[in-house]
């Protein structure tokens, strides 16, 4: 009886995984024109740049500027 419950859960998980793969791989392969027209990607940074933890925030901020 205990094995039957595990088998149902395993089947459910397998079906969800198969559905996810099918849904993720579907599509017609064309890209939208909106994505081609936009060249600017804005990034935001939230980190400490002063105080005792600035040694963690400043390198993160510099990394964001490089990106």
Dominant shape: flat
Total helical elements: 3
Q: In whole angstroms, how far apart are the ends? A: 56 Å
Taking all Cα atoms into account, the compactness measure Rg is 23 Å
Structural class per helix/strand content? mainly alpha
**What is the H/E string?**
HHH
- Count the E strands: 0
Strand content: under 5%
Helix residue percentage: 55-70%
Task: Summarize model confidence as the mean pLDDT.
Answer: 80
Low-confidence stretches: none
Task: Please outline the major beta sheet.
Answer: none
Keywords for this entry:
67 residues, mainly alpha, 3 helices, flat
Summarize the structure.
The protein is mostly helical and 67 residues long. It is built from 3 helices and no strands. The N and C termini lie far apart (56 Å).
What does this structure look like?
By secondary structure, the protein is an all-alpha fold. It has a domain at 41-67. 63% of the residues lie in helices and 0% in strands. It has helices at residues 2-25, 33-37, 54-66.
Produce the secondary structure layout.
Elements (H helix, E strand, L loop, with lengths): L1 H24 L7 H5 L16 H13 L1
């Amino acid at each position: 009886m205990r094995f039957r419950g595990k088998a149902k859960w395993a089947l459910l998980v397998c079906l969800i995984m198969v559905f996810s793969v099918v849904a993720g791989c579907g599509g017609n392969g064309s890209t939208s024109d909106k994505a081609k027209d936009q060249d600017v990607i804005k990034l935001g940074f939230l980190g400490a740049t002063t105080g005792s933890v600035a040694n963690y925030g400043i390198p993160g901020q510099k990394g964001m500027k490089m990106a």
